[in-house]
Amino acid sequence: xxxxxxxxxxxxxxxxxxxxxxxxxxxxxxxxxxxxxxxxxxxxxxxxxxxxxxxxxxxxxxxxxxxxxxxxxxxxxxxxxxxxxxxxxxxxxxxxxxxxxxxxxxxxxxxxxxxxxxxxxxxxxxxxxxxxxxxxxxxxxxxxxxxxxxxxxxxxxxxxxxxxxxxxxxxxxxxxxxxxxxxxxxxxxxxxxxxxxxxxxxxxxxxxxxxxxxxxxxxxxxxxxxxxxxxxxxxxxxxxxxxxxxxxxxxxxxxxxxxxxxxxxxxxxxxxxxxxxxxxxxxxxxxxxxxxxxxxxxxxxxxxxxxxxxxxxxxxxxxxxxxxxxxxxxxxxxxxxxxxxxxxxxxxxxxxxxxxxxxxxxxxxxxxxxxxxxxxxxxxxxxxxxxxxxxxxxxxxxxxxxxxxxxxxxxxxxxxxxxxxxxxxxxxxxxxxxxxxxxxxxxxxxxxxxxxxxxxxxxxxxxxxxxxxxxxxxxxxxxxxxxxxxxxxxxxxxxxxxxxxxxxxxxxxxxxxxxxxxxxxxxxxxxxxxxxxxxxxxxxxxxxxxxxxxxxxxxxxxxxxxxxxxxxxxxxxxxxxxxxxxxxxxxxxxxxxxxxxxxxxxxxxxxxxxxxxxxxxxxxxxxxxxxxxxxxxxxxxxxxxxxxxxxxxxxxxx
Length: 654
Prior knowledge:
By secondary structure, this protein is of the alpha+beta class. It folds into 7 domains: about 10-95, 2-Layer Sandwich (Phosphorylase Kinase, domain 1); about 95-280, Transferase(Phosphotransferase), domain 1, CATH 1.10.510; about 300-385; about 390-450, Trypsin Inhibitor V, Chain A (2-Layer Sandwich), CATH 3.30.10.20; about 455-520, Trypsin Inhibitor V, Chain A, CATH 3.30.10.20; about 525-590, Trypsin Inhibitor V, Chain A, CATH 3.30.10; about 590-654, Trypsin Inhibitor V, Chain A. Helix 3 (about 110-130) runs antiparallel to helix 8, helix 5 (about 190-210) runs antiparallel to helix 7 (about 240-250) and helix 7 (about 240-250) runs antiparallel to helix 8 (about 265-275). The protein starts with 9 loop residues before the first strand and ends with a strand. The model is unreliable at about 165-175 and about 285-335 (pLDDT under 50).
């Protein structure tokens, strides 16, 4: 089909496309107007090169369904989504602003306050998604839009996934290498903690203006995610506080168990950081013990006594009086001082004696207690001991029952070849026969695989993937031989489609088995046959194993039967037996069918009458009253080229 003229297209009689504002790998974004409410909207449209790609269509529809379920002020809102002919669209909230990536590229590192403000809003958006059991899987600055008031919106849920869908490991690694989590790269089951890792990268980039891991290729970056630890942001920008360092590095832990377990936990620490509640941050704290020094009373020395005496004698006393008074006071003071010294010595001796008596008593008590406890433990152990029976040459199931009867367990450590002991019979045991062990102990055994043969049966490997086939050959004591690959219409890539020698035959131990792996279904590149005549174009395309249908387009400038266009477009890769549409020139006057869907029956009939087109009506049951007497569908579809004498079938709700 020819390319659509997107600009000025009106969707569902409500939204008019004005201009293109952004381009992406899968879809383009256009500025639109809600005609009825006279407000701007953003209209996301699947790129027309994916109109026939079921995988991309499914992803596009899934994003619309996801956004329709998520209602949060920090997630872009969706108004409507659907399909017009082959055109898939999502009508969303229009946000006047820039992506976080554009802001970082323009400003470099952002302030701590702005970074924390943005991070809290991203947490709000992720919490809304995670509470619905949804992980975004592509958190990066390009998918975050900031308006002029610093309000933030998370967008692009195109590869988001519900955790309930992850019953097995992640098969396809989808996302941006700079922001992807280690467990995502390893193909492990993902949960909300994977988004927290990506948010940690975004935090790091906002704080430093750079990414923690860079490399010459996505592979180099991915290996660093798996094996290297990031530099703390404060080593790059010194003003970043250590507590914010800890928050970022906790988000970037390789093991999800060591990260924040939810975005709510992360948001709590960010809020505490904003409010400077550092003691509330979710990290282990080191506290210094407060120690108080005890000041004991100091005994006065003779010098201080003299000082006191000298200051209580008045100046008009005679020298003799001074000497007599001085002598009396000094003698009295010294006497009191000697009494205190003697009392302190007696007191200290008494304390030492009491401590010595206590120590001796405690030692005697502890010795008696330990001896009694030892005797009790010995008695208790003896009552719990059982003798190990002889299990050699006993069949494994019988041995299990024997040990169970005496409260012992069994564990098979190894299977070994033995020509004297039959298969599944015990060859060796540990502890050995007649040993004493405590009840509920485990007896470790080796069992016989029987006599080792020179040959083994070749297993059937067809239908297995390469890894499983390799493990199965190892179990049969066989090796992998030559490996070849072929295209195959029935087996997926890397699945075994044939083997040599064939299964069920006998082969010598360590023989090599040659394998043929599927390369998957062969893809065919559509050639450029524009301006060919129909016959030559048909021969070229059918020779490639493709099927052809034709549609006519009026053209007076080229010979009749000239190929004007091809769909899918030339250069596209398609599977064998795919259908290719050739648009062929004709001199017939054709008319493009109008879009009648959603119109009232009378308006639809009036439109057809103006175009001199005939019609048939088919009434269908509908569930909503607004659909009654309205065109639910039409054949041919809108935009289809038809002759003037062809009828249009209208499906009317009743």
